[in-house]
Amino acid sequence: MSAIAMPETKPTTIAAEPYEFEFEPGHCALLIIDMQRDFLEPGGFGEMLGNDVSQLRRTIEPNKALLSAWRAAGLTVIHTREGHRPDLADLPPAKKVRGKSATTIGDEGPMGRILIRGEAGHDIIPELYPQPGEPVIDKPGKGAFFATDLHAILQNRGITQLVVTGVTTEVCVNTTVREANDRGYNCLVPSDCVGSYFPEFQEMGLKMIKAQGGIFGWVSTSGAVLEAIA
Ligand code: TIU
User: Fold this and answer.
1) Which among 92, 94, 120, 147 would be 20 to 30 A from 104, CA to CA?
2) Is 206's pLDDT higher than 80?
3) CA 170 to CA 173: how far, in whole Å?
């Protein structure tokens, strides 16, 4: 028996590419990837590196609408944060030095130590802040399944499908969708709820998911998902 009672909900379909998605709300989690202050807020680490955070900030309103609908329907919501232990014991040396930047993970940044758990910049933006009871997965890598208990949490709740949102489209969202696909989950990505600092990666990151008959999953919009929940 599952430790957590799942809501009884009717299957329905969501308009998506490459073809419609068979949506089973009671078995589908909303997985919001790394909507952290350091990636999204002006004055954060992302902007400090020269990135245009407005490319990510346009995802906040659609994510808010989706999160609100998911909560209202009593469905599973899971958040992730990319980051490391304050003692850096879980930070691979290769990740620490990559990029040859003067300021790297663990150093003091504009909002505390960069990508370190417990620091202000590592936390989730206030607009999408987790509510009590919503699991928050602290992940040391780009994919949300690597070195985390996400798979166990999903299995314990009978989850077989994921609506994956967040940032960035080509890095942590794509890596997580690929990891999920190999573990047997069906993933749907609403295009307006994922963002990249690079418009060309946004476009190609979504194309890579839905190409070849949905090689990694489906691409849709928040509007189509909201319609299905309603
Ligand atoms: N969350 C996530 O995508 N982390 C990154 O480091 N993304 C970049 O695009 N750099």
Assistant:
1) 147
2) yes
3) 6
